[in-house]
């Protein structure tokens, strides 16, 4: 164990199994959730050792043990599934990918980054976001006769629990807190803030959580509304949802936001209906990608589940091909090409039909599936692939967004 500077300590842990780059990437990303005293964990290029960056004031014995427990779970992840490509579009624009899109958008005054995983935007960024959302909605109406709907941004914990979210992504949940309904506590909070420089949070014991959360997956709030209904004929719903995923220190411009927008499509019916909609969703995604003129792929995928559930669920997802991911090439902060996950196409079986009590033929629990498109990532990918020269954008798009 060697000390490098005053703020951080670094130490190395040998992995009990060699890992590939895919698992190494998951380890590095999830490592921000291991301990408040661990800045991050990096896996060496050989995949055999992890370098733990500990924060000042850490009990090194304790966090070494914690990091070891985390790593022992993570290295058991299954990876290297065969990736199948189900749909692919190639752009007609032959110009180079543009690097540093986030910074350029801020510089042009089209985007404001609050620094906590939230952005404000206007001008061409807003117009492109709206255009992608509108175009997707239009395609869903035409192809699936989808019904428009709207859902709240908050969701109660019982619904999330029913959706199995705490089991798969406990680290990403955001609970709402309120000052307790207590005259003295409220007054104390008011007084403390009336003359303070920055905001002062109420003490822990004066905050109560009544079980409201910020919605972490666009389709969840739809399911309670379907209760008791019959979907023998099949039905699609579509809307623009606001989604929140706590990413801790992993936030990064439009690449990884805490709060973002998703154009969602949910389909409900019997197995044949749900499978047919999924099949028909592929050319719809291709249409959207070629409208904006971007390189895009739909391929098999697995969710980055929380460490302890990862191995089993990933294997199940990949082997059943229940999740396809929409991947759009973009550039990392260092200029290297990366595949940005811009959406997913999912089959849920009768999981939600059973849990929320809605049926298809013969009163059987209905099956569901969904397609979610992360609007801000589509925007980022489009600016990466076309840059800032208007003439490189397809005419139908540039006439709207640069007007
Ligand atoms: Zn969904």
Structural account:
This protein has 403 residues and is α+β, with helices and mostly antiparallel strands. It has two domains: 2-74, Alpha-Beta Plaits; 85-171 and 212-401, Bira Bifunctional Protein, Domain 2 (BirA Bifunctional Protein, domain 2, 2-Layer Sandwich). Helices cover 34% and strands 25% of the residues. It is built from twelve helices and 18 strands. The chain has an eight-stranded mixed β-sheet with strand order 5-15-16-17-18-14-13-8, with helices on both faces. Strand 16 and strand 17 form a beta hairpin. It is globular. Residues 217-219, 346, 370, 372 line the site of zinc ion.
Q: H/E order of the elements? A: EEHEEHEHEEHEEHHEHEEEEHEHEEHEHH
Uncertain runs: 1-5
Helix content percent band: 25-40%
Q: What would you report as the Rg, rounded to the nearest angstrom?
A: 23 Å
CATH architecture of the largest domain: 2-Layer Sandwich
**How is the largest sheet built, in terms of strand order?**
5-15-16-17-18-14-13-8
Whole-number mean pLDDT: 91
């Amino acid at each position: 164990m060697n000390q490098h500077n005053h703020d951080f300590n670094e130490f190395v842990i040998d992995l009990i199994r060699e890992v590939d780059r895919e698992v190494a990437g998951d380890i590095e990303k999830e490592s921000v959730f291991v301990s408040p005293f661990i800045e991050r964990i990096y896996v060496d290029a050989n995949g055999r050792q992890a370098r733990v960056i500990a924060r000042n004031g850490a009990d090194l014995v304790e966090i070494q043990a914690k990091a070891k427990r985390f790593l022992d779970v993570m290295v058991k992840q299954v990876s290297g599934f065969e990736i199948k490509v189900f749909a692919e579009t190639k752009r007609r624009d032959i110009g180079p990918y543009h690097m540093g899109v986030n910074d350029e958008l801020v510089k042009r005054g089209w985007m404001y980054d609050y620094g906590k995983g939230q952005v404000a935007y206007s001008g061409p960024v807003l117009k492109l976001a709206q255009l992608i959302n509108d175009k997707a909605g239009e395609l869903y109406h035409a192809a699936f006769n989808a019904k428009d709907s709207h859902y709240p941004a908050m969701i109660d914990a019982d619904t999330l629990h029913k959706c199995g979210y705490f089991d798969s992504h406990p680290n990403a949940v955001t609970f709402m807190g309120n000052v307790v309904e207590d005259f003295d506590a409220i007054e104390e909070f008011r007084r403390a803030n009336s003359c303070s420089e920055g905001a002062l949070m109420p003490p822990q014991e004066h905050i109560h959580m009544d079980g409201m959360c910020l919605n972490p997956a666009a389709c969840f709030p739809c399911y309670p509304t379907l209760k008791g209904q019959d979907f023998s004929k099949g039905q699609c719903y579509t809307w623009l949802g606001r989604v929140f995923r706590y990413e801790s220190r992993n936030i990064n411009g439009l690449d990884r936001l805490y709060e973002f927008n998703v154009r969602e499509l949910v389909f409900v019916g019997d197995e044949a209906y749900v499978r047919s909609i999924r099949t028909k969703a592929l050319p719809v995604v291709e249409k959207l990608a070629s409208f904006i003129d971007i390189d895009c792929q739909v391929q098999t995928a697995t969710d980055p589940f929380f460490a302890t559930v990862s191995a089993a669920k990933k294997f199940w997802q990949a082997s059943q091909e229940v999740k396809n991911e929409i991947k759009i090439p973009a550039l990392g902060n260092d200029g290297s090409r990366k595949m940005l996950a811009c959406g997913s196409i999912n089959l849920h079986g009768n999981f939600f039909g059973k849990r929320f009590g809605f049926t298809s033929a013969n009163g059987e629990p209905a099956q569901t599936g969904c397609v979610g498109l992360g609007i801000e990532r589509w925007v980022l990918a489009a600016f990466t692939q076309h840059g800032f020269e208007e003439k490189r954008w397809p005419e139908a798009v540039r006439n709207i967004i640069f007007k």
